[in-house]
């Protein structure tokens, strides 16, 4: 007998025998629910036999049978009522456990997020994707109605989504395109590092979504809840349905602030900040200006993350300000990196190490932030030791710049589009889904190994636009993305180490070395970052103008 826990108060399993009842009771279960009709199979004990034995052990019993594959809404509701009224924990069973899991999920649909239910069942070995829409609809079977239908549906109105829409329209202006995104504001996120360094005003990095959407594109202002690729359908919150001929998935990633104990309660207070949030980047600059002595701690979580250089960019700009104001010697700086290296492409590390030494930074590799006590100004890290064990390390701080763990959005992780790690499973070159040929993905949500940066999305968008139109018979010959990514590392105010690379960490400069040598700090690279890239983003990338980003055809 195999008991699989869904939550602390409920376990499920396949068909049990009379002899199994003792083990269930000894495991601590106090209620037994059978979800299988008598007589389904020749080797199946009748419910009355199980019930009699269960009562010998003092278990509360219920029989709520369902036909395999036909769990009704009413049965889901009834299961929830039994669960609420019965002594805990509860063990439920059927032939395989699937009917019990389905009833449990439907009963919890109005109380818990869909992704939590689907993921919890998945960890126990049960696939609930077939009842996702019923879960989204509060445990009830939705009416089969498509609210909208478009040739191209793009999920996500960030840098990747807007860019690919514009690149598509530049190639075929009459395309029927819809972008699904619930946000009112579109952000130029690469600018937040400079907001935290006192260079940009936060307001310059934000524009209304309506103002940046390409003309002619339909905006569906809603959140996506699920995908049904076999039906060419996207399910929105409220169980509304949008169908498509081709789908582009680029909703970005999830910043998991809640994964660090105590962090959400202290962000923006007690010296705790992050340039990864629009409203907190100005607080970073405030803290930098106010700090004249003490300890500043900068963190970097496990990969993958959005812009792997951003955690140390914040540190360099802060340290440079303290150096220019004559207080650097009174400030201890710790860089606590969950990884094992300063930067993933070795060619750029020597230049960065010179600044580490200049600023007197203490490098702490293998340190993962796990908890923050804001009022006490204490940060707790888990440190990986050489022998594979771990220890807890507590650091006091006066300023703490946090980069949260990051993962694919919940509705992506539990979808049929995701790989085992939760990212959209696409071919690294064509960015086409490996199973569903009418689905593409780009930006931070894909499982490609490139750096998750806006520069990567700038190169990916034309590739997706081209290949999508090849599939529609408009163009010929696939285009390939080479993994290009860029990270302008702001090592001091006025100088940048311009890291550019493709798949495998191969250095791929856009400019000749006599103009900008990316492996060395450069004033011209700073000018590019501060003066050229923002208008390039707003007026070129988001408008479908592919300067230095034309796709390379391979077939």
Describe what this molecule looks like in 3D.
With 555 residues, the protein is α/β, with parallel strands linked by helices. The chain has three domains: 4-136, Protein tyrosine phosphatase superfamily (Protein-Tyrosine Phosphatase, Chain A); 149-253 and 408-553, 3-Layer(bba) Sandwich (FAD/NAD(P)-binding domain), CATH 3.50.50; 257-406, FAD/NAD(P)-binding domain (3-Layer(bba) Sandwich). Helix content is 28%, strand content 24%. It is built from 16 helices and 29 strands. The strands form eight sheets. Strands 6, 7, 10, 11, 12, 13 and 24 form a seven-stranded mixed beta sheet that branches. Helix 2 (47-56) links the parallel strand 3 and strand 4 (60-63). The longest helix has 18 residues, at 454-471. Residues 2-110 form the Beta-lactamase hydrolase-like protein phosphatase-like domain. Residues 151-263 form the FAD/NAD(P)-binding domain. This is Sulfide:quinone oxidoreductase.
Task: Characterize the overall form.
Answer: globular
At the first level of CATH, what is the class of the largest domain? Answer: Alpha Beta
The tally of strands reads: 29
- CATH fold-level assignment of the largest domain: FAD/NAD(P)-binding domain
Helix content: 25-40%
CATH superfamily membership of the largest domain, which one?
FAD/NAD(P)-binding domain
- Whole-number mean pLDDT: 94
Radius of gyration: 27 Å
Unreliable runs: none
The biggest beta sheet reads: 7 strands, mixed
In the CATH hierarchy, the architecture of the largest domain is 3-Layer(bba) Sandwich
Number of folding domains? Answer: 3
The proportion of strand residues reads 15-25%
Distance between the termini: 54 Å
Number of helices: 16
Task: Find the structural class using helix and strand composition.
Answer: alpha/beta
Keywords: FAD, Flavoprotein, Oxidoreductase, Quinone, Transit peptide
Cofactor: FAD
Domain FAD/NAD(P)-binding: 151-263
GO biological process, one term: sulfide oxidation, using sulfide:quinone oxidoreductase
């Amino acid at each position: 007998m195999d008991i699989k826990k869904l939550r602390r108060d409920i376990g499920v399993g396949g068909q049990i025998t009379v002899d199994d009842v003792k083990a269930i009771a000894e495991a601590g279960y106090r209620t037994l629910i059978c979800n299988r009709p008598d007589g389904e199979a020749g080797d199946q004990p009748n419910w009355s036999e199980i019930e009699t034995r269960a009562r010998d052990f003092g278990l509360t019993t219920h029989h709520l049978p369902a036909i395999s594959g036909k769990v009704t809404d009413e049965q889901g509701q009834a299961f929830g009522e039994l669960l609420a009224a019965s002594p805990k924990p509860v063990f439920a069973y059927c032939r395989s456990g699937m009917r019990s899991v389905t009833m449990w999920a439907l009963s919890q649909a109005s109380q818990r997020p869909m992704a939590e239910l689907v993921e919890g069942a998945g960890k126990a070995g049960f696939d609930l994707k077939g009842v996702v829409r019923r879960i989204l609809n509060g445990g009830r079977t939705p009416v089969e109605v498509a609210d909208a239908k478009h040739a191209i549906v793009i999920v996500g109105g960030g840098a990747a989504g807007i860019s690919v829409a514009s690149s598509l329209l530049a190639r075929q202006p009459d395309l029927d395109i819809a972008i699904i995104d619930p946000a009112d504001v579109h952000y130029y996120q690469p600018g937040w590092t400079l907001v935290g360094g006192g260079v940009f005003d936060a307001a310059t990095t934000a524009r209304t979504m309506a103002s940046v959407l390409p003309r002619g594109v339909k905006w569906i202002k809603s959140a996506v809840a699920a995908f049904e690729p076999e039906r060419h359908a996207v399910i929105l919150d409220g169980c509304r349905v949008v169908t498509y001929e081709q789908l582009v998935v680029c909703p970005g990633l999830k910043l998991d602030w809640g994964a660090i104990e105590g962090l959400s309660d202290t962000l923006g207070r007690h010296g705790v900040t992050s340039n990864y949030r629009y409203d907190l980047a100005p607080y970073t600059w405030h803290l930098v200006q106010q700090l004249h002595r003490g300890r500043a701690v900068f963190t970097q979580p496990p990969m993958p993350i959005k812009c792997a250089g951003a955690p140390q960019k914040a540190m360099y700009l802060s340290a440079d300000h303290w150096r220019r104001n004559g207080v650097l010697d009174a400030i201890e700086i710790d860089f606590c990196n969950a990884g094992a290296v300063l930067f993933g492409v070795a060619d750029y590390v020597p230049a960065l190490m010179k600044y580490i030494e200049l600023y007197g930074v203490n490098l702490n590799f293998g340190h993962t932030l796990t908890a923050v006590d804001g009022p006490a100004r204490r940060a707790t890290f888990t440190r990986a030791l050489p022998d594979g064990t771990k220890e807890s390390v507590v650091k006091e701080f006066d300023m703490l710049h946090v980069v949260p763990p990051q993962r694919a959005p919940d509705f992506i992780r539990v979808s049929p589009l995701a790989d085992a790690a939760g990212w959209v499973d696409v071919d690294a070159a064509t960015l086409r889904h490996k199973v569903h040929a009418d689905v593409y993905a780009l930006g931070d949500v894909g499982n490609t190994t490139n750096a998750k940066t806006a520069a990567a999305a700038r190169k990916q968008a034309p590739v997706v636009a081209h290949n999508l139109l090849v599939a529609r018979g408009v163009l010929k010959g696939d285009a390939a993305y080479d993994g290009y990514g860029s990270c302008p590392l702001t090592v001091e105010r006025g100088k940048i180490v311009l890291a550019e690379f493709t798949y495998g960490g191969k250095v791929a400069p856009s400019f000749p070395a006599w103009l900008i040598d990316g492996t060395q700090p450069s004033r011209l690279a700073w000018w590019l970052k501060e003066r050229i890239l923002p208008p390039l983003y707003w007026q070129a990338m988001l408008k479908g103008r592919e300067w230095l980003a034309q796709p390379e055809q391979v077939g």
